[in-house]
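quick one
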Amino acid sequence: MDANEAAFYNMLSEMAALFDLEGTDKALQTSIALRDAIGNGAPALATPYVLDDMIQSGLRSAVHPGAVAVRQAHPVLHWAATSILDDYAPSSVSRHFTAVSLMGPGQFIEHNSLRAGLYMQTPNSYYQLHNHEAAETYIILQGQAEWTAGDVTETYGPGKIIHHTPYMPHAFKIFDAPLLAFWRWSGNIDVDTYRLLEDPKA
Ligand SMILES: [Fe+2]
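structure w/ fe (ii) ion:
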């Protein structure tokens, strides 16, 4: 096994451990699918990407084991190139974030009812209110965010697990360091239900 493969499997293992902590049925199903993928090959080396410097500098000081695992797996993480939301969020919104889609229909870990991956949002940016039918969980690994989920707006940092029920509006304001999170969807995982919402802060 080469170093990139080992780093990728370690990242899947860290993701699974964190979704175990979330502990719901769908989170545990996600953990099982992540662990099933360990030992079955890593993605090909990623090609250079415009936000590589931000991603790598943002993770240099990482201490959360999940963030360290992402840093180590960087060579095989295909940031952004194919965001599942490309057809749904205008570039004025999607330029604030980048993602690695790992699990889902047609993704590296094939799954027809769950999605999971990595999310990173650029410093000093605001991802306006949006929602979707899928139930969603983010687990913050690095950085801080002022997070709106339904009626609650609070500032969170590494280790925080945030769950959005179907159609719960959510928005994320990021401060001067990029935000990194693991992410998953369950329920109706069709991206067609994704909508940007009216947001006075946008
Ligand atoms: Fe969402």
